[in-house]
């Protein structure tokens, strides 16, 4: 493990065979707001860094390796939330899943020696190093590693691509619904966030950085994981990766993702990049409560990575954004699809499309862009409409085992509609192709040819009832947000240098 908020220690060395029984250990996290999301019997403990290696029944060696990074808003989740064994049907892929520290434990970022930041991301790097060192013993090829992530795991693999610490540890990247420029993927002001949460937990001496650090070190796991952060209106979940202060120890990230993308100083690997059509459905349960709040003060719903010269300017921009989606009408059941679009854009779509443009401008010519919109009769209709929509990470569940997010326990796909079975086969073929070749559609495939995207976010593959190549993805919405972010973007900054520790604490 590690000291509480620091990089993980090297894994232990076994002198005798290790009895690798699944004890359902997960990292400390709140109870899930989603019914039945956390299975019975899971054990939450600090010493939680566990890898799960799924090996096909074959004597082949040098198998391709897929490392899945789980989602959960950086505050919950575990390696075995979902399984990807169907991807292994060709018996030439090994799948690795794992836990990493979450919430305060993974992402407290005070810029001090004991809480430098990004412990959870350093856990991910440590896992990838473990794979490099050990996967050949399982029949895997350390020179053929693809990292895949969904939701916060998507933002994670997108950030790993920009980290010098992770360079050379993987060779292809599949971020599914979550980007390195997303509001929720990096803390704007990590010390301020630590102060806000400490105050929420009734600690008052927040301006003394060492007292604040001591509070987090000595507070119980139950209290530190008591808030789920899911109901925040600023499109963040509080604790997430941060830009670190350089302190002489290994860092995960010392510049903002935007700076790294603009400078082009990262290893340009093949990327399969995209999202589902109605990502914003992730916020649909809040609609009854939030519609009125949005009408009263829409500025409370602006993403946290926007900054303004004055409150007047903030309100002006908020009204401009509200008009773009809702016109002069109040937010209501009549325009609930625009509510969905708004949250799709502020959480997921714009960040990924902005990054696509920056990648290409930096000379990256292997970004394969898509939008997943497939639905069948099992997909629920959007409330107050007759329309079915592909929900957050719908494409991930098309590739993973089982039915979908609302039927986690149904890994048996016999209950899936014939249309969805066909779609799952197609999606797995595309992902398999990319894992093996770095291209989603190799030459000779029956699927439509799929060129890499240009700076205009075109072309993209529409993965819907039909699979077809289309032009610019979400052109009008993306152009609108490009303009907003060009004017008002607030980059994440590292914590300030703390004062010297008082002698009594040395």
TrEMBL record:
The keyword Hydrolase applies. It is an enzyme of class 3 (hydrolase). Keywords: Disulfide bond, Glycoprotein, Hydrolase, Serine esterase. Residues 5-481 form the Carboxylesterase type B domain. It comes from Spodoptera frugiperda. It comes from the Eukaryota. One of its GO terms (molecular function) is carboxylic ester hydrolase activity. It holds the Pfam family COesterase. Belongs to the type-B carboxylesterase/lipase family. The keyword Disulfide bond applies. This is Carboxylic ester hydrolase. Its EC number is 3.1.1.-.
């Amino acid at each position: 493990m590690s000291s509480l908020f620091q990089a993980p220690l090297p894994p232990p060395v076994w002198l005798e065979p290790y009895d690798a029984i699944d004890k359902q250990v997960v990292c400390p996290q709140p109870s899930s707001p989603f019914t039945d999301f956390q299975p019975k019997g899971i054990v939450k403990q600090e010493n939680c860094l566990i890898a799960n290696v799924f090996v096909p029944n074959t004597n082949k060696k040098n198998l391709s390796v897929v490392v899945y990074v789980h989602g959960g808003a950086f505050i919950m989740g575990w390696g075995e939330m979902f399984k990807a064994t169907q991807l292994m049907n060709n018996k030439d892929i090994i799948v690795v899943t794992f836990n990493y520290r979450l919430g305060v434990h993974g992402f407290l970022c005070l810029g001090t020696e004991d809480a430098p930041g990004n412990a959870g991301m350093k856990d991910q790097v440590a896992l990838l190093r473990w794979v490099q060192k050990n996967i050949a013993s399982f029949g895997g090829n350390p020179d053929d590693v693809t990292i895949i992530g969904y939701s916060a795991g998507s933002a994670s693999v997108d950030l790993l691509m920009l980290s010098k610490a992770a360079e050379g540890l993987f060779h292809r990247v599949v971020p599914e619904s979550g980007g390195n420029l997303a509001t929720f993927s990096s803390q704007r002001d990590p010390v301020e966030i630590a102060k806000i949460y400490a105050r929420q937990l009734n600690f008052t001496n927040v301006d003394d950085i060492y007292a604040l650090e001591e509070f987090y070190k000595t507070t119980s796991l139950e209290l530190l994981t008591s808030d789920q952060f899911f109901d925040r209106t600023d499109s963040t979940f509080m604790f997430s990766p941060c830009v670190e202060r350089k302190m002489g120890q290994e860092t995960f990230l010392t510049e903002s993702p935007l700076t790294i993308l603009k400078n082009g100083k990262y290893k340009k690997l093949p990327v399969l990049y995209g999202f589902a059509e109605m990502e914003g459905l992730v916020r649909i349960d809040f609609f009854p409560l939030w519609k009125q709040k949005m009408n009263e003060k829409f500025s409370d719903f602006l993403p946290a990575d926007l900054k303004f010269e004055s409150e007047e300017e903030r309100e002006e921009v908020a009204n401009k954004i509200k008009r773009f989606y809702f016109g002069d009408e109040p937010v209501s059941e009549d325009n609930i699809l625009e509510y969905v679009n708004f949250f799709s854009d502020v959480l997921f779509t714009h960040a990924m499309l902005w990054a696509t443009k920056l990648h290409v401008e930096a000379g990256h010519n292997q970004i394969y862009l898509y939008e997943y919109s497939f639905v069948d009769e099992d997909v629920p209709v959007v409330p107050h409409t007759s329309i079915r929509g592909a929900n957050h990470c719908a494409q991930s569940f098309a590739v993973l085992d089982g039915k979908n997010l609302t039927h986690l326990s149904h890994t048996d796909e016999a209950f899936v509609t014939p249309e969805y079975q066909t779609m799952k086969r197609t999606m797995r073929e595309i992902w398999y192709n990319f894992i093996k070749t770095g291209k989603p559609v190799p030459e000779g495939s029956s699927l439509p040819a799929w060129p890499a995207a240009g700076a205009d976010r075109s072309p993209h593959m529409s993965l819907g009832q039909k699979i077809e190549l289309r032009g610019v993805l979400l052109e009008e919405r993306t152009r609108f947000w490009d303009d907003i972010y060009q004017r008002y973007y607030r980059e994440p900054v590292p914590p300030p240098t703390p004062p010297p520790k008082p002698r009594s604490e040395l």
